[in-house]
Amino acid sequence: MSWRTRSSLAWLRGLPGVREGEPLASRTSFGIGGPAEFFLELGRPDAIEAAIEGCCRRGIPYLLLGAGTNLLIADKGVEGLVVRVVNREHTIDGTRVRAGAGLKMMRLARIVADANLRGFEFAIGVPGTVGGAVYQDAGCWGKELREVLVEAEGFVPGAGRQRWTPADLDLGYRTSALRGGALKGALVVSVTVQLQRGDGEEAKELMAKLTRERNESQPIKTKNCGSVFKNPAGDSAGRLVQAAGLKGAREGAAVVSTLHGNFIVNEGGATAADVRKLIEHVMAEVKRRFGAQLEPEVEMVGRWR
User: Fold this and answer.
1) Where does residue 185 rank: exposed (0-12), middle (13-18), buried (19+ CB within 10 A)?
2) For this structure, is 179 an active site residue?
3) What is the largest CA-CA distance in the chain?
């Protein structure tokens, strides 16, 4: 039975600030994807909670959106309600830092360096939000969020506010209970991390060095979703793609980066179907050549059928 009843549609259209048919491509780092059937941009956690609680009661599908990285939205868009989470507050208490889910990781890395805190420099290489980082245990340069995470505050429709330890979140390499486990569909409200006192200027110098290295080795200034594939155990997805001779492989305006094999670039006008076809081609070719099964890190959402 469809959720599209007259009362459900009336409820959606009555949400303050809601927009119908909102384009989503510009809200993703890929610059790809169709519209949200209904769209809200919210900063207050209680407003986000009310929206997703209402969706659950009515059987309306919903998608929580942060910075739109690591995401491939279908060309036909997203059914139901898309909520863009933009709560960006932060507080620092000694060496503990609490940040709203909508705050970008790169921004938080600079904030904590200004406060002479160390241990978060890796986040300068994570383009998404704090909430998104919890969702997939984001990391860079061999360090993951779970290594500094104390707890996350969240909201589960039907159960209310909760506090989650790293164990509750079942954090692992680019996954968590939020992405595919017991907490799927829950909202991350805020995150608390434990850092160390240190020289903030040294932290900034390290982040500048890491950023320079990243700019030289990855197509940072292009439209891309970040790493397309998870690294297989003991190997590198980028190495496998390069060894298979797939750098520069193309489907429409979607191209495997010639700078780094684990990036697909939107040269302008690429469709989600182009990207998906290219991903499948790369996976099949790497499997054929090396017997290695690549697993997508990018999440595909929306109306694919």
Assistant:
1) middle
2) no
3) 59
**174 flagged as catalytic:** yes
CA distance 201 to 203: 5
The residue annotated as part of the active site, out of 22, 227, 257, 276, is 227
Q: Count Cβ atoms within 10 A of the Cβ of residue 147 and give its class: 0-12 exposed, 13-18 middle, 19 or more buried.
A: middle
pLDDT digits (tens, 9 = 90+) for 35-75: 999 999 999 999 999 999 999 999 999 999 999 999 999 99
Q: Is 190 a catalytic residue?
A: no
Does the model's pTM come out above 0.85? yes
- DSSP symbol at 230: P
Q: 63, 85, 107: which is the final residue of a domain?
A: 85
209 in any annotated domain: yes
Instruction: Say which of 174, 176, 251, 257 is annotated catalytic.
Output: 174
Residue 281, domain CATH: 3.90.78.10
Q: Both 228 and 144 in a single domain?
A: no
